[in-house]
Write a structure and sequence with these properties.
It is a single chain. By secondary structure, this protein is an all-alpha fold.
Length: 287
Amino acid sequence: MTPPAASDKMTVSSMRIVLTRWLVTAVLVVLAVVTLYPLVFTVINSLKTRAAYSADPLGFLTDITFENYIETFERMQVWRLLLNSIITTAGGLVLSTVAALFIAYAVTKLKMRGGNYIFLFVIAMLVIPSQVIIYPLYETILDLGFGGTYQGLILAYAAFGLPLGTYLLSAYFRAIPDELIEAARLDGAGDIRILFSILLPISTPAIAALSILNFVWMWNDLLLPLVIMGGSDKKTLMVGVALLSGQYDVSIPLISAGLIVALAPVILVYMLFQRQILSGAIAGAVR
């Protein structure tokens, strides 16, 4: 039979556990509401008329209208801008990931002289805001003859996506035993084959998580496409949304509809591949 004192201690401990769980749940609910509110607010406003928004900007829906979405597709040329966003995001994503693979392999497995300095130099770019180097970057893009082209924006995306990719893949590669690499070399495999036939399959979770994270920021980025593309017909979907606001007339419902259209692919990708993000993060933590 359990002594009364021990029973009281167990009861107090159980109450503490229950209270802690309730507290954690309440905090998570508050964070979820704070995080989701801007998206819900945007969806609600995109379904309002201008008059309804002016009368009650923070109110709920009374009448639903899709006029804002219809006008968005008419004014933005959504399909053209969508194609531009797909081309530039996919190009920047592939180029930054491949470059990060090569650099991570070089600084972790080739034992090259000065490899740590190269790694530190690349990683240092993580703390440099894009606004600081946007002018020299733009001048470089112009000197290369890539102003207003897909190539210019793809190179810019790859440059800004390289530091994070190098950091994550280097941490992943360091956890892979060097004996595996040496065994492959004894079998006659070269560095390219080792990278793409051995390390790449092993690092699939990390690459998947990295690709999704880079996709989200490249797709949603406004500064780089606005500066590099300018007023060309190759501007991205986010630039098209920014141009919906006129000089003297700003329609929040119209801009909200444009934002939902632009964010729809990102939300879809995240919902489809959220398991890959979680598995990549867990795999990196376990290693």
